[in-house]
Please model this.
Amino acid sequence: MSVVVTGATGQLGRLTIEHLIAGGTPAGEITAVGRSADRLAGLAARGVRTAVADYSDAAALEAAFAGAQTVLLVSGSEVGRRVAQHGSVIDAAKAAGVRRVVYTSAPHADETALVLAPEHTATEQLLRDSGLAWTVLRNNWYTENYADAVSAARESGVILTSAGDGRVASASRDDYAAAAAVVVAGGEAHDGRVYELSGDVAWTFAELADAASQVLGTPVAVQQVSSDEHHAALLGSGLDEGTADFVVTLDGDIRRGDLADATSDLRDLVGRPTTPLVEGLRAALRA
Model:
């Protein structure tokens, strides 16, 4: 089995490769694709094939995909450009004779109003229209996304949010990577499947504050504010307007319940419970 992992210089891609190797996929049958040769060097030293390619570089992508059966398309990070970039990856996979693309999407991408969903929804449609076999991994939020907030709470004693009683069914990035490796290595058994991946437990921000208290060994409280108050506080802390808008919008999505669905798909794929919130935060702060 020859597989390609895109975004391999990012954390999810790299961890997926680690799980593929641990699961028995020979390093020489894996190609790691990323934008930096220097950041791919560690994988190359382990015997993984590497290729430098940007998501917009069709020729480089096609060359990197040559001979591969499966491509893991780790969704890009450039919001507003991702549909075109993902389309380029899918087209290159077709041109290279790849059989299947596995794509990391957003939770309930076909029906949610989540701020991040539209580009994922469009990419899923590109896959369905491509003629390739496909599998969609709809990843809920990463626990690591809250590491900075928890770290800051060491001094402030507060986690600020406008998410109200909304819940987040997060899991650790390593959990999602383990599931991706299972699906990539599993071949045809996963064709045409959409997996809604999440942590086993959907937590509130009050529970996040409790978890932060355990991890830090110091009391942390949740401070609930309005969206306008949250926006003003974020600007006051030095965030730019666009980032502040995104954070407040996302908290509104959480308040509406867009990240609250705790499913069994992730634990079923990896064959174990997902990483609890406290453990995930503790590992993230050690990293």
In short: The first helix runs from residue 11 to 22.
